[in-house]
Amino acid sequence: MTRENILYDNSQTIAENHIDGYLYGAELKGSGGKEWKSAPGKIEHNAIVLVKRGCMTYTMNREEFTVKNHEMKGIPNWATIEEIRYSDDFHGCIIEACDEILMDIFRNNNPLPLDSMFRLSGNNNALSLSRKECSTLFTDIRNIISALGEKQHHFLNELNYAYLYIFTADLASIIWDRHGNGIPDHTLEISRSGIIFQQFLELLGNNIESAHRISFYAEKLCISKQYLSLIVREMTGNTIGKVISKVRAEKALRLLTRTDLSIKQIADRLSFPDQSTFGKFFKRQFGKSPVEYRGNITKKLRV
């Protein structure tokens, strides 16, 4: 049975398979589009869009993005989609994966450069691919979609985990060509710096609402603030302060778009001293105040 998905029309589907709550994949062809006037659409899991031909244009959190042929872009699960359109000649694939499977791949197998999420963050453009790179990733996703259909396989989850890992490994190779530094660290040979950075990211995700000082994370990792700052700079190309601010800002964005908490409640939850300080922080990160951002969403809902 074809799965309903806010990112595409079922009439576009060439092939679609999924394991509910785990992994989804679809190959799409042709025009389509959706618009939400009563409430923004929300995807269930993190999505990756790969365009082989044509283009896909969508409005996410009041910003318009376009993914063209031989490009790939991620759509986070905290985003709200107001509108989406596909060109007549569109041909591409979409996969959605739950947080658990993605984190397991990144934590245990580490295929991507640890710093890639920060080196590539802030770049609203899609990842441009060569024809060969696009073809490789397209084949990988097709294999995932096909494997998802093997419902009688006794190890269906493991099978699809393997195919997803192949996709992330091929993607990692492409990213290493552009942003990697030296030879990739593999699981058994990961450096001490890489281990500490992984532990720092996990601590950051679990404590970002209340802990924003470098000293907190350094003490948890039993290292000096200077050493932790050096590792983060080495791994990301950014200061540790910028990395903490980025994660804190994304948490604020999630709370603004996915909850009914007031601006003051969000400021309190993220441990800002007052609403004004939170507003200035948010505007530095996103170019508009929390009130303006939420107001734009409300205005869209009233159209």
UniProtKB/TrEMBL annotation:
The keyword Hydrolase does not apply. It holds the Pfam family HTH_18. One of its GO terms (molecular function) is DNA-binding transcription factor activity. Gene3D superfamilies: Homeodomain-like (1.10.10.60). Residues 198-296 form the HTH araC/xylS-type domain. It comes from the Bacteria. This is Helix-turn-helix transcriptional regulator. InterPro entries: Homeodomain-like_sf, HTH_AraC, Tscrpt_reg_AraC-type_HTH. Keywords: DNA-binding, Transcription, Transcription regulation.
